[in-house]
Amino acid sequence: MSQPVSVYAEMTPNPEVMKFVADRPLIEGTEQAEFTGKAECAGHSSLAEELFNFPFVVGIFISGNFVSITKDDTLGWEMIAMQMREYIQQWLSEHPVAVEKVPPAKAISDASAGAGAPDNSGSGASELVALNDSDIVPTEHDEAIAALLEEFVRPAVEADGGAIDFRAFVNGTVHVRLRGACAGCPSSTATLKDGIERLLTSKLDVVQSVVAST
After folding, report:
1. What is the spatial distance between Cα 184 and Cα 169, in angstroms, rounded to a whole number?
2. Mean pLDDT confidence for 100-121
3. Which terminus has fewer CB within 10 Å in the chain: N or C?
4. Could you tell me the residue ranges of all domains in the chain?
5. What percent of the chain has pLDDT over 70?
6. How many angstroms from the chain centroid is the CA of residue 168?
7. Mean pLDDT, all residues of the chain
8. Three-state SS across the chain?
9. Could you report the per-residue pLDDT of 69-104, keeping only the tens digit for each?
10. What is the pTM of this model?
11. Does domain 7-104 have CATH number 3.30.1370.70?
12. Which CATH class is domain 133-212?
């Protein structure tokens, strides 16, 4: 039976990403789900699977009560935002669950380099620093860094339709992974340097810089 649902569209700092906010949770608790193709959605999110049927959709990020959709450059949001909002609202009114099973976290290199992903080279988007999981060594500062990101940064980036994950602390540098609207966003460099880096260096003397890593 159909259940009334309210959905509104909200711009993000990334011009290729629109955030669609519902008046109910779309995923359990603090879990998050990211997809860069329809094949990845099978068994995980029926909503995401359906959204990839739109030919301009190249990425989907689900967190809390919102879904962020990344499009290609074939159409402007002014032409499709209303259609997407109405489609998502109708779909949610007919389906009680948007994410059936949370997928494993994707590496940002997978999420941003997939076929059809927007090319933000030269746009001011933050360059990625290569960091392999095998090279990550836990430190005594990890817990404090992660706590600061969780308390002060996560709410802000989620409000913009994205997410930030702490990856590692290496030789004075904090490595984070940007996802959703934050991945490939033209303003991500300013966010990292003027926001997150300033916060962490002011709170923790051992932190010298913050970078986005693969």
Report:
1. 22
2. 55
3. N
4. 7-104, 133-212
5. 88
6. 18
7. 85
8. CCCCCCEEEEECCCCCEEEEEECCCCCCCCCEEEECCHHHHCCCCHHHHHHCCCCCEEEEEEECCEEEEEECCCCCHHHHHHHHHHHHHHHHHHCCCCCCCCCCCCCHHHHHHCCCCCCCCCCCCCCCECCCHHHCCCCCCHHHHHHHHHHHHHHHHHHCCEEEEEEEEECCEEEEEEEECCCCCCCHHHHHHHHHHHHHHHHCCCCCEEEEEC
9. 999 999 999 999 999 999 999 999 999 999 999 988
10. 0.70
11. yes
12. alpha beta
Edge-first strand order for the sheet with 17-22 is: 7-11, 17-22, 66-71, 57-63, 32-35
Residue count of the chain, please give it.
Answer: 214
- Retrieve residue 50's tokens: 């359906």
Q: Which two structure tokens, joined as six digits, stand for 52? A: 């990839």
Token pair belonging to 21: 């906010």
